[in-house]
Each structure stands twice: as C-alpha cells, then as structure tokens.
Amino acid sequence: MLLYFLRRLLLSLAQLLGLAIVVFLILQAVPGDPVKIMLGERASPEYVETVREQMGLNEPVLAQLWMYLGRILSGNFGDSVTFGQSIPSLVASRIEPSAYLITYGLLLAVVFGSVLGIVAAIRSGSVADFSIRILATAIFAMPAFWVGLVLSLILGIQLGWFPVSGYEPGLAGALRTLTLPAIAIALSLIAVVLRTLRASMKRVLGTEYVEAARARGYSESRVIGKHALRNAVTPTISVLAVVLGFLIGGTAVIEQVFSIPGLGSLLVQAVERRDYPVVQVLALLAGAVVILAGLVADLLQAGLDPRVRSAIQNG
Asked: How far apart are CA 28 and CA 33, in angstroms?
C-alpha cells in the first residue's frame, strides 16, 4: 500500500509539472505583447519595457520557463501590475470565501445526493425511484446561475431568509451569506451523486454477499450501511473527483451572481484587466486542486474497497 501511495504521489507531481508547463505555454501563445495588453495603449514605452524586464519577458523562452518553474517551487509569483500587490497575497485574500463555498456546496451535494440515491436504489422501479430520477434530471438541466437568481428572488428578496450578495468572514458569517450560492452549486451536483450512487448501489444490492448478510439475519440498515454502501460508494468518489473541476469553474459564475469576493470573481476581474500572471496562477491553483482531489479519491478507494487493495498488492 505504501508503494502504491508513493507511485501515485509521483504521478501527481508529474501531472503538476505538466500542468505548469501547459499553463506557461498558453501565456506564451497569447497574441501580441502581454505587457502592452495589460497596461493599455496609454502606457509609456519606458514603463512597458520596465515591466517586461521585471517579468523576465526579454529572456529566451526556455529561460522564462526555468524562471517560472523556479517561482512555483519558491512560491514567489511576483506582483500584479493591475491590482497593485503581490500575487500570493492577492490570492490568499480571496481564498477563504471560495474554499468555504466549494466545501459547503460539496457537502450539501454529497449528503442529499447520497440519501436520494440510496432511497432510489432500495425502491428501484417504484414511483419514488421514478420521481427522484425525474427531479434529478430536471435540476441537472437548470444552469447554476439561473438557479442562483431564482433562489435570491424567492429565499432572499421575497422571504428575506438569506442575504443575496456579499460575504461575511468567519464560519457563522459564511454559513449565512453562502447558503444560497452553496445550494445553487449543490443542486447541479446532486443529480451526479444520485445517479452514480443509485446505479452502483443497485448493482451491489444484487450481489451474493449482500444476500448472504440478509440470510444471516442482519437488519436491513446494517446490510445497507455496512455491506452494500461501503462497496457502492467508491464509483461516486471517483466521479466527485472528476466533477470537482467543473465545480471550480462554476464557482466563478456563482461568485459573480452573488458578489462574493472569492477566487472566481478574482479570475473574472483578472481576465477583464488582461492580467495574465494572475490568470496563470489561478489556473495553476485550480488544476492543482483537481489533481490533489484525484489523488485523495484513489487513496480512499484503496482504503474502502478490498478488491482495489487486492489488485494493488497483486499488481
């Protein structure tokens, strides 16, 4: 198991390196002079040249790549020209709202999606199963930003239960201000969790070891919770690791709708200002989170599913 962890960790590091190179090449592929684009046409040639020198853009491409990888390892990403502060401090000041929002939305999706998926699998073919699947399909078809606007109108403006914009720091403030955007994010993920867990749960409930557990007189809750769910949940973990990338992308839109000062809104602002170094760092950070999620998902699968552990030991 330790050897598998080390192999998987090395693979993740290689993926991070490849991601960093791809992000660098994308910036190199931007047509025109990125400094002139960031500073605008009114910037003096002397100032443009100074910024180019500071960013190392006068060096050969391979030298720029080497300096760029060195900055990643040291955590020194330089300063943002348009925001007027260092990029690490800029990202750090925006990371809390996004982290709370993604975690909150993911927890809601996992809890409600799992409950509905288990109910649909247990009552497969019933009216409840059919209704749950129809509802999940309808919710999945709704754009997250539209759901957010509807929630703001009904729960925020008409009923006044939650604020419709802004962010309050701290756990209590985050729960109050991020509930509506978290629900908007979670609704699109609930359908994914529900369908994946229902399919795997339905398959596991028909296996011989589940029938043997029932024959031993175990209660249905123990059969489902201990014997069936543990093996059925592994495909859902893999799917969640994949959709996390889409969740991060959708967060940018939701943060704009609810005026949340997180990384998503920072990305939109950086794109509008053509601040490519900030966009570069945010893209690298998002990719690193997805790679880390894949690593954690693989380790959880190996810990939960004996078949995966057996395959690792035999392989």
From this structure: 10
Q: What is the pLDDT of residues 91-125, one digit of tens each?
A: 888 888 888 888 888 888 888 888 888 888 888 77
CATH number of 98-314: 1.10.3720.10
Angle at 107 between CA 187 and CA 294, to 5 degrees: 100
For residues 37 and 22, what is the distance between their CA atoms, to the nearest angstrom? 21
The string of pLDDT tens digits covering residues 196-240 is 888 887 777 777 666 676 677 666 677 676 667 777 777 777 777
Q: Can you give the pTM of this predicted structure?
A: 0.80
Tell me where in the chain the CATH 1.10.3720.10 domain(s) lie. 98-314
